[in-house]
From TrEMBL:
Required cofactor names: Mg(2+)
Species annotation: Candidatus Caccosoma faecigallinarum
Residue ranges constituting the 4'-phosphopantetheinyl transferase domain according to the UniProt record: 4-93
Gene: acpS
Family named by the database record: Belongs to the P-Pant transferase superfamily. AcpS family.
Protein name (Swiss-Prot/TrEMBL): Holo-[acyl-carrier-protein] synthase
Stored HAMAP family: AcpS
Signal sequence segment: none
Database matches in InterPro entries: 4-PPantetheinyl_Trfase_dom, 4-PPantetheinyl_Trfase_dom_sf, ACPS, Ppantetheine-prot_Trfase_dom
GO CC, alphabetical: cytoplasm
Predominant place of localization: cytoplasm
Keyword Transferase: yes
Superkingdom classification of source: Bacteria
Sequence positions that bind Mg(2+): D8, E55
Amino acid sequence: MMKGIGIDIVDISRLSEKVADKILCKKEMLEFKGYLNSNKTRAMEFLGGRLAAKEAFLKAVGVGIYNGISLTELQVVKDQFGNPTFKDNQSCFLSITHDAGVAVAIVVVY
């Protein structure tokens, strides 16, 4: 049974490296910095995708970012098949995509 659904879209061009510490947890930040060293475009897609995923999750569970949950408390990881999911929350489906300067994420909580 589906309990909630959330979707979010992020204009990647509106992001800067300076906001990464407000969005990413420590492990995500390490991955982001690795991308920055090799491919800034990919780094910003990563940041936009993580922001969209986390905001979509909060929408799906009915909690806003101003209600006590920090974006840095959520961590997007890859499952055994390489698909994105949230660490310690296996009761949701997450899909992230980025193209043409935007990142989009959808979360279904079941």
